[in-house]
Structures
1.
Amino acid sequence: MNRLENQCAIVTGAASGLGLGIARRFVEEGARVLITDIDREAGEKAAAELGDAARFLHHDTSSVDDWQRVMATARQDFDRLDALVNNAGVTLMGSVEDVAIDDFDRTLAINTRGTFLGCRFAIGLMKERKGGSIVNIASVSAFKPQPELVAYNTSKAGVALMTQSVALHCARSGYGIRCNAINPGVIHTPMLDKVIAQVEDGEALMDSYKAMHPLGRIGEPGDIASMAAYLCSSEAAFITGAAFTVDGGLGINS
Ligand SMILES: NC(=O)c1ccc[n+]([C@@H]2O[C@H](COP(=O)([O-])OP(=O)(O)OC[C@H]3O[C@@H](n4cnc5c(N)ncnc54)[C@H](O)[C@@H]3O)[C@@H](O)[C@H]2O)c1
């Protein structure tokens, strides 16, 4: 505890699921957190639950204007930024033949462009103090293809390589900014509940997800929050450009 004492952080998509779990852990570890989301009602509720160390901002991560507004608030409230977790994301189902083209574009706009914009704007503020940690939430889907998730696979593979590109740029520029990715396995969040609701036999799908994880369960937001807190702490000072798979062994299950 208190590994993030006095840190100022932004967590996107933090009104629910993984983002809320990460924001909660950051507050427990001593950070002040701007939690951002497009869902205003859930975001305000989450901030109220987290207490004085958290403030909610309405934010569409695919929008440049919104990022400028969020960064202006970070400057005004904190005058610094130590950590950014690019967590906001969507999963829209469809194969290469049947995914709606608008859904493909939207998935990339939020998952990939949103992460890119977050890195770009965070670097601007972090480099002023020569330090910071960016954590991008990618997925096991960044390297494990699923035929019905072509847009999601594409968007997360983009996040994976973008993380390395950003890490190298920041290191070579001498900014003291680290950038890493987390690849969660299947985690129990509202996003998963939406996927389950879209199929005919949701219970069978949930059982198959559990069976796919050699550790015998799906993950919880706290499993990912632990890794995010570690990556933003001084314990991870020598780690950049890395991808940490937190998936109960899913990725090594053939
Ligand atoms: N749940 C899983 O199994 C799983 C596995 C691997 C990776 N992930 C990734 O973890 C992240 C969080 O997923 P989750 O499962 O918590 O999902 P979730 O749907 O529970 O939460 C996502 C949050 O992002 C917000 N959001 C959506 N579009 C946004 C936008 N344009 N701008 C700002 N906020 C936006 C939503 O309102 C929601 O609060 C996503 O990037 C997802 O791809 C999830």
2.
Amino acid sequence: MEMYRRTFAEINLDHLAHNIRVLQKSFPQTPFLCPMVKANAYGHGDVQLARFLETLGIEHLGVCLIEEGLLLRNFGVKAEILVFRGFDREGAEKIIQYHMTPVVSTWEQIEHLEAAASSPVGIHLKFDTGMNRLGFRPEEAQKLFERLWQNKKVRLKALVTHLFNGEDALDPQGQSAAQLRALHGVSQIFKPFNIFCHALNSAGIISWLSLQRQGATPSHPLNLQNWGLRPGLMIYGYNPLGDKGVVDLKPVMSLKSQVGTYRILKTGETVSYGGTWRAAKESVIAVVPIGYADGYHRILSNQAFVVFTGQRVPVVGSICMDYLMLDVTDVVQGRDLKEFKDQEVTLFGYGSDGSFLSAEELARQAQSITWEMLTSVGERVPRIYTGQDAGFISEEIGGE
Ligand SMILES: Cc1ncc(COP(=O)(O)O)c(C=O)c1O
């Protein structure tokens, strides 16, 4: 891999394997453990992660776009690929040709599949139980049953819904509980089919783990026997509920760079566009080659901290497209700047010195969410795979 700028995202496959094992051990009976690898596997590299997940025994993968599924197939991914976004007639043909499983949300999509299929195509049927985005209304279930029962072209495999407030899943009177009850109700209509249901994202899954720890509450709507799971954020090492006690997850991505140059500022001089930061004393500024075009949000200007020699130092001045600046005055004080040549900077994740800065904390400072911080990491930032099985990725995909 050519890399003349030492700015990269380090992807720790051991941590990913750890997070997956947590799920596999906690839910050995689930019929469907479907890590979400859409949006370039939340920024971690979809082909690489999909191939690696297969080696961990993962048999189902979730994407949003047909294009994402095609990419995985073209790189030899064999797992069942669920495509969550809708499709037209042309899309139906691609889905069938590449042996993907569509998540069907409209009557037209059923027609497209029937028109395109020469042999029965397996589908998951999506119900809108409150998100108000995609899916059939529960009231349509009976008509759908009649449409699909003994259908020669379309074979129903599962029912799906999506929690819009998974964070409340532990509350038996909450919105998630109502959604789970609604899908359970729908599943009763489809009982003659040999199907299962899936609804839980990371927040729902971790809530369920929490419920299991609390002991038997068989009537709780989260007690889902034979339901599938669709973890996203948690496999990448972050817990949307923030409660570290429930589950031990390890962040997979670390965003890193190296100081390019240092500038010594006199009192009163300013840094970067608009001069939004002014030196209150003689200051040492480190210039780091990563900017908003790499996914480090501009809103973090004069807000965030990064790790430099194991210590937190502030980002000062406006973040540029390709650079950001740090005030390292207090850290380098009294020392020769040559000692800090090419110094590593950790934007989030683990530093080589063992320090850790959470993408979740950065997301809060950016008035965003962890999902956005991870998926924003730009295309021009190389992903470097580490961990025991990193060699596998290089050999299989042709990376270095
Ligand atoms: C349909 C669907 N299922 C599951 C997930 C995973 O969600 P999370 O990353 O919160 O676990 C997503 C993510 O947006 C999704 O769109």
